[in-house]
């Protein structure tokens, strides 16, 4: 559920009229609901009640510092995947002991940055990374707390580009080699093994792949303990899916996910970490855009918006579906007609939807892309020299711009013409 609902025929973000924000900020813009972010974080936190746990928001899904501050103040940790994300987490006031560092390609500079600033743990994904981390930590007179990310060879049955737990995927170490690599880790001077990490993919709509993966993690925990390792923490990754349409099958609830965790690994006495991204941020955000033209093509109608693939990449990148609704609620009984909904970028890939059934719309009308909070603004670019899309956060009847739209001058000022030109 979210907090973007019609009230008196107008789409609201909590208690704020989205058309009002559009008139102040211009379009396109992202808008996030603090109440939805809070609610989704708490659902996970409550789902793990009774177990020693930390919910680490996967900030690659939505990394605005204001959003991180909001979640951090609720007690969230964060999962970061780059030095830039680490710096954002710290800028939001999140202490190092609540930051976990994931990713297959951590550089030595990023390792040193996190060891220097404080880190809960590194989720290490390969032997070369393990060796590099040991060297960096020893060189600093430090010890790096780690889990090894194991690849359980489980098919998450999700989109090809976001499945991560099969043996052909680039992530983690093969679970069959885990005992050998843990033995190696235990011998390294700059490393302290504290647990196991697993993350099998994103937008999972069934609990079965989690169950298979966590069962393997439980077996591995017992095996590694028998080998003499202290396994006190399990990082179970993120990946729980969200409904992108009103009428699709409801994905599993965080509470059912929590029960599954209790059932599969709850008796091991480990501290539990999870790294949800999309389920916290996805339905907490929308993208608002204005209709520029309604163009009658030869065999179809094109709705041309002022938002484009550079603002919201998911449809072009994953073929993703977003519900698109007018800011003025359609009157009951109006006739819907199929339209292709496109942006102004000079690529045919800049298409948000084909033959989408839409109520009557005309130039100047406002529409909202639902479920755009995750992997939306963070993937935006300035392709076609379209200034980076702004972000707005709403809380009750308050709203604030949390990232302004750059001016053309801001955008151009980043380029430098060399003296010799
Ligand atoms: C992307 C990612 C997540 C979050 O995935 P969601 O599907 O957004 O919940 C968590 N952990 C890791 C390591 C990731 O790469």
From TrEMBL:
Enzyme superclass (EC): lyase
GO MF term list: diaminopimelate decarboxylase activity; pyridoxal phosphate binding
Catalytic reaction annotation: meso-2,6-diaminopimelate + H(+) = L-lysine + CO2
Binding site residues for substrate: 278, 314, 318, 347, 375
Binding site for pyridoxal 5'-phosphate: 239, 275-278, 375
Active site: 346
GO biological process, one term: lysine biosynthetic process via diaminopimelate
Purpose: Specifically catalyzes the decarboxylation of meso-diaminopimelate (meso-DAP) to L-lysine.
Record-given protein name: Diaminopimelate decarboxylase
Source taxonomy: Bacteria, Pseudomonadati, Pseudomonadota, Alphaproteobacteria, Rhodobacterales
């Amino acid at each position: 559920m979210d907090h973007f609902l019609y009230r008196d025929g107008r789409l609201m973000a909590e208690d704020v009229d989205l058309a009002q924000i559009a008139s102040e900020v211009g379009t396109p813009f992202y808008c996030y609901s603090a109440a939805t972010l809070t609610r989704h974080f708490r659902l996970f936190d409550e789902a793990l009640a009774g177990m020693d746990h930390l919910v680490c928001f996967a900030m690659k899904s939505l990394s605005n510092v204001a959003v991180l501050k909001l979640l951090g103040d609720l007690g969230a940790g964060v999962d970061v995947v780059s030095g830039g994300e680490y710096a954002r987490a710290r800028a939001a006031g999140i202490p190092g002991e609540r930051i976990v560092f994931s990713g297959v390609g951590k550089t030595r500079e990023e390792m040193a940055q996190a060891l220097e600033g404080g880190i809960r743990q590194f989720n290490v994904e390969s032997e070369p990374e393990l060796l590099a981390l040991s060297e960096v930590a020893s060189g600093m007179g430090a010890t790096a707390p780690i889990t090894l990310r194991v690849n359980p060879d489980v098919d998450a049955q999700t989109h090809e580009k976001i499945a991560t737990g099969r043996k052909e995927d680039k992530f983690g170490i093969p679970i069959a080699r885990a005992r050998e690599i843990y033995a190696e880790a235990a011998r390294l001077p700059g490393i302290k093994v504290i647990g196991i990490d697993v993350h099998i993919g994103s937008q999972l709509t069934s609990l079965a792949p989690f169950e298979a993966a966590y069962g393997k993690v439980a077996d591995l925990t017992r095996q590694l303990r028998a080998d003499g390792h202290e396994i006190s923490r399990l990082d179970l990754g993120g990946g729980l899916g969200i409904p992108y349409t009103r009428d699709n099958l409801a994905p599993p609830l965080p509470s059912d996910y929590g029960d599954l965790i209790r059932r599969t690994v709850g008796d091991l006495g480990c501290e539990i970490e999870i790294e949800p991204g999309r389920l916290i941020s996805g339905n907490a955000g929308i993208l608002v855009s204005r209709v520029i033209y309604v163009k009658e093509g030869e065999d179809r109608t094109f709705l041309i918006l002022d938002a484009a693939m550079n603002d919201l990449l998911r449809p072009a990148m994953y073929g993703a579906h977003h519900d698109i609704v007018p800011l003025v609620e359609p009157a009951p009984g109006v006739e819907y007609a199929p339209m292709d909904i496109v942006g102004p970028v000079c690529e045919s890939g800049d298409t948000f939807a084909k033959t989408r059934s839409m109520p009557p719309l005309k130039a100047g009308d406002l529409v909202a892309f639902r479920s755009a909070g995750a992997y939306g603004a963070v993937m935006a670019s300035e392709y076609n020299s379209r200034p980076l899309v702004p972000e707005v956060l709403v809380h009750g009847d308050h709203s604030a711009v949390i990232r302004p739209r750059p001016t053309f001058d801001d955008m151009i000022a980043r380029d430098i013409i060399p003296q010799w030109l």
